[in-house]
Amino acid sequence: MRRIDLKRGLFVGRFNPFHLGHLMVVKEILAEENEVIIAIGSTQESHTLKNPFTAGERVWMIHESLKEAEISLDQVFVITIPDLFRNSIWIHHVRSYCPPFTRAYTNNNHTRRLFKEAGIDVKPTGVFNRTDFNGSKIRELMLEGSRWQKMVPKAVIKIIGTIDGIERIRNISKKTD
Amino acid sequence: MRRIDLKRGLFVGRFNPFHLGHLMVVKEILAEENEVIIAIGSTQESHTLKNPFTAGERVWMIHESLKEAEISLDQVFVITIPDLFRNSIWIHHVRSYCPPFTRAYTNNNHTRRLFKEAGIDVKPTGVFNRTDFNGSKIRELMLEGSRWQKMVPKAVIKIIGTIDGIERIRNISKKTD
Amino acid sequence: MRRIDLKRGLFVGRFNPFHLGHLMVVKEILAEENEVIIAIGSTQESHTLKNPFTAGERVWMIHESLKEAEISLDQVFVITIPDLFRNSIWIHHVRSYCPPFTRAYTNNNHTRRLFKEAGIDVKPTGVFNRTDFNGSKIRELMLEGSRWQKMVPKAVIKIIGTIDGIERIRNISKKTD
Amino acid sequence: MRRIDLKRGLFVGRFNPFHLGHLMVVKEILAEENEVIIAIGSTQESHTLKNPFTAGERVWMIHESLKEAEISLDQVFVITIPDLFRNSIWIHHVRSYCPPFTRAYTNNNHTRRLFKEAGIDVKPTGVFNRTDFNGSKIRELMLEGSRWQKMVPKAVIKIIGTIDGIERIRNISKKTD
Amino acid sequence: MRRIDLKRGLFVGRFNPFHLGHLMVVKEILAEENEVIIAIGSTQESHTLKNPFTAGERVWMIHESLKEAEISLDQVFVITIPDLFRNSIWIHHVRSYCPPFTRAYTNNNHTRRLFKEAGIDVKPTGVFNRTDFNGSKIRELMLEGSRWQKMVPKAVIKIIGTIDGIERIRNISKKTD
Amino acid sequence: MRRIDLKRGLFVGRFNPFHLGHLMVVKEILAEENEVIIAIGSTQESHTLKNPFTAGERVWMIHESLKEAEISLDQVFVITIPDLFRNSIWIHHVRSYCPPFTRAYTNNNHTRRLFKEAGIDVKPTGVFNRTDFNGSKIRELMLEGSRWQKMVPKAVIKIIGTIDGIERIRNISKKTD
User: Fold this and answer.
1) Do B138 and B124 contact (CB within 8 A), yes or no?
2) Is C124 exposed, middle or buried (0-12, 13-18, 19+ CB in 10 A)?
3) pLDDT at B173 over 70
4) Which residue, among F17, F13, F3, F7, has the nearest Cα to F136 in the 3D structure?
5) Has residue D129 got a pLDDT over 90?
6) DSSP E strands, E26-164
7) Average per-residue pLDDT in chain D?
């Protein structure tokens, strides 16, 4: 019978959108652990400049990108987690949405601290080129009409096309009071 | 390049726990569609008689059960959806957490009606033996100390053992005011 | 120029559905005050046995019923108020959704107490036949397939027909776990 | 018997305060539809620079302004709708608070997009002078002590006087940490 | 300088009302620890049969009862904690509202389990006569008009008199639909 | 028997952290009233630049600071109050968490207005040196690594050391998107 007590690494993000930097981290975690948990945060939010995509669109991007990269979903949990608006217990909230995990991976100082205060082991992710692969920069390029396509998997380009995502971001930015 | 406009069937439940009846429905949907979306509802709730397991425990049970049944996770979305406490728009809430889907599968009259009022195609699931495979009955048997194990995949038995789930359910039932 | 400091009476209810007893209270209040405020509570809820209709359906029933009764909407405020789940300050919540009012009308002991504790004048409504005109009784008759139609304005019958309301209530009651 | 399947146009705003531009839109909609639904959003908020007035004060301003303009309330629904903080399903939330409507009227790009994504017909409103009639500009003038009175119906001036609204806005702006 | 790393015992309850059994537990904890934390839960609720008193009324009862018993408030934290409606992380929520504590005291199986799952030391409280000192029984006696006064400190009788608490409970019970 | 109808003054703040200015206000209120209620607001928030400390840490700071200043906790209520996000009724929310009080003390224009609109007596606090004793300034100094220690009681320095508070604030400020 299959063992259930595998080593799992947790990767928390908002994935707006899922980009090549994220993909590198997934591969890095899978090189060290049996399985990876991709936890999508702020799933209640969409259609804002910071979180333009719905939870469903983000899940979809991740599934298609992993398949494109020939990573089997058998070793991946993709989990949608709404905000709790309670920093001091957010880590426990995340934990209640996930199967047991060995450690969390993050380069963010604030997130690392929250994991540490909750007594959870944290590891930095290998340094990828954050200048190129950066969610807020990608969203800015989308808004400006500049080239963002090289920073994301092809599947993400396709999905953003299907949902008319670039136009959505531009409409958000023209929001008047 | 891979197509992203696949046929997907939606299967909504609370999965407390995931049982053999659920597994049959998953197989049935995969026989008709390219992919299945297993949407876990009421994920904010746990440690109650109706929803004893956490969202993470339920996700874990589903992943392990599908692997045990040799169903590739590549064709399955497992999505965690908190309650919205707004029946009239709950279907739209669910939809915002999922990739596009062709139709929903359910035998529940109330859920079917909500899908219909939202203009979504609904199909009944093939009749399985609801007397044997029924969440509230399984939880009752767990509480009584009767045999519930034949109604769930082996992986579910293992996970419930790991988390000391039967004892948890008994403690819940002894809750005093 | 028109005066804005009119005498207004507040009438709080859930109006699931608006019935002839409610209509009598509206008339009674308009006989004593310049204007009536019909405050619809629990507007976030619908598709339950206690609150089967949406906020919009309830507003619609009230407007059409008042027109049918030839009561001008010029002297009526119809206001939709979500629950706050905070009994001790609910009255202040209601007040923040309404224009200034002189007093509240209710026959409910609990509601009367909340108004009193908040320092607001409360008046009982003239006794109408509560055996005939009673929301929970009407919903029960709808469920059983008995005659409920004599207890509500014709406009309400029409709207419930349009939204297939009786069938909705039956589907709710067949909700399985 | 009166028909209930009328043509209704939806007009969503925050109305802080209701101004002459809003009044023009109401007239424009009533010229094309049988009835207008004025849906007041963000009703849970008040006493902020963006939403200084309570839901009740805004309802009151609208009723009195329409009477001043000799528009019968018999053809107007004024509905108070709290925020849902879920952009992707906000339109469905609004819809659940309203009677059925034919189309929505808005000049806002973001709102128009949300209606379109929800499959609802949207029409731009006739261009009025947005430089003169603009909520945030009016609130700014109130704060500065400049002339804002020409931009709103007389009834709104009266109500703001009654509630000491200008002083309230100034107090809000002096909020210290 | 005073030490801040004292031994503290946590005592969680709803205290509707604070009774002599509660007082015994406070004394018991103070005999073993330097300080006691009295954590009042469900503080958002009041005016229901289960939680008739407001958070403020419950705090007030506790302060006055401790003074009556000549227990100095210098060694007592009285903390008001709203429900989170998330059993799996409720203990962490409670912890975020309290100063550090050594262990929790409870005789409730369900609560004990939640503490254990969160990795916190729990101790049973010495057995007091639960037949006499029991919140739901006291509330029942209040409703029936029987003698409840011997079960609570004199200060509690006085406060319940001041707020007309018995009449409030009776009004709640007469709540009609 | 002890009187329960004492004169109590209400002091609302966020206390991030409790500083010497706050301590002066407490002393000032105790000179005029029998008891002081220290109501800690925004208790659901922590680990942000505006509210770096948890509710529990803030309660702890206040208790230890009062003891250090030899103020008996017998005359002090320390109450934790979550935000309601409803300005118009926030005062009533605060009131429901407190024992009865005679008046509120504040120098904040906005808060004073909210108390006045709710019909509660408000008094300004004696002017202390707000340039020296100011929460946002103290947090800024902590972030910069400048001297903040002279502005707070010694107990606060000790607690911030114990929880590694300065490092926490720096981690928060380095939060990346």
Assistant:
1) no
2) exposed
3) yes
4) F17
5) no
6) 35-40, 76-80, 103-105, 122-123
7) 94
> What is the per-residue pLDDT across F122-149, written as a single tens digit (0 to 9) for each?
999 876 666 678 999 999 999 999 999 9
Contact C47 B85 (CB under 8 A): no
The answer to whether residues A125 and A106 touch, using CB atoms and an 8 Å cutoff, is yes
Burial class, D161, CB count within 10 angstroms (exposed 0-12 / middle 13-18 / buried 19+): exposed
pLDDT reading at B1 higher than 60: no
> Is D110's CB within 8 Å of A175's CB?
yes
Query: Do the Cβ atoms of B9 and B102 come closer than 8 Å?
Result: yes
**Residues in chain E closer than 8 A to F57 (CB atoms):** 99
Reply yes or no on whether the pLDDT at E69 is more than 90: yes
The tens digit of pLDDT for each residue in B44-58 reads 999 999 999 999 999
Structure tokens at C20: 């002839």
Predicted confidence band at C128 (pLDDT cuts at 50, 70, 90)?
low
* D134 lies within 8 A of chain A by CB: yes
Contact residues for B34 (Cβ-Cβ < 8 A; gap 6+): B6, B7, B8, B75
Q: Which residue did the predictor score with more confidence, F126 or D68?
A: D68
Q: State how far the Cα of A33 lies from the Cα of A7, in Å rounded to an integer.
A: 5
F116 touches E at CB < 8 Å: no
Residue D116 has pLDDT above 60, yes or no: yes
Residues of A in contact with D134 (CB under 8 A): 177
Question: Does the beta carbon of E123 lie under 8 angstroms from any beta carbon of chain F?
Answer: no
Task: Determine the length of chain E.
Answer: 177
Nearest to E74 among F55, F72, F78 (CB): F72
Architecture category of domain A8-168 in CATH: 3-Layer(aba) Sandwich (3.40)
Q: Is A176 on the interface with D (CB under 8 A)?
A: yes
Query: Is E21 an 8 Å CB contact of chain B?
Result: no
**Tokens representing residue B170 in the block:** 């008994």
- How far apart, in Å, are the Cα atoms of F61 and each of E41, F48, F162? 22, 18, 11
Chains F and D in direct contact, meaning 3 or more beta-carbon pairs closer than 8 angstroms: yes
Give the C:F interface size as CB pairs under 8 Å: 18
Q: Is E145 left (phi over 0), alpha (psi -120 to 50) or beta?
A: left
DSSP state of C49: S
| Secondary structure (3-state) at B111 | helix
CB-CB under 8 Å, D176 with F50 = no
* Average pLDDT estimate for B102-108: 93
Q: To which residue do tokens 């004024």 refer?
A: D78
Domain B8-173, what architecture? 3-Layer(aba) Sandwich (3.40)
* Dihedral of alpha carbons B122, B125, B131, B132, sign: negative
Tens of pLDDT along E130-165? 667 899 999 999 999 999 999 999 999 999 999 999
Distance CA E68, CA E74 (A): 15
pLDDT at position C1 is 58
Which of C16, C42, C45, C47 is most worth mutating to test chain B (most B CB atoms within 10 A of its CB)? Answer: C47
Q: Report residues of chain A scoring pLDDT below 70.
A: 1, 127-131, 175-177
Is the minimum CB–CB distance between E76 and chain F shorter than 8 Å?
Answer: yes
Q: Does B56 touch chain A (CB under 8 A)?
A: yes
In angstroms, the CA D90 to CA D83 distance is: 8
Closest by CA position to D114, among listed D144, D142, D88: D88
- The residue-averaged pLDDT of D78-88 equals 98
Can you tell me which residue has the tokens 């199909």? B123
Q: What is the pLDDT of residue A130?
A: 67
Phi-psi category of residue D59: left, alpha or beta, with phi > 0 → left and psi -120 to 50 → alpha: alpha
| Both tokens assigned to D7 | 């043509």
- pTM of the prediction? 0.96
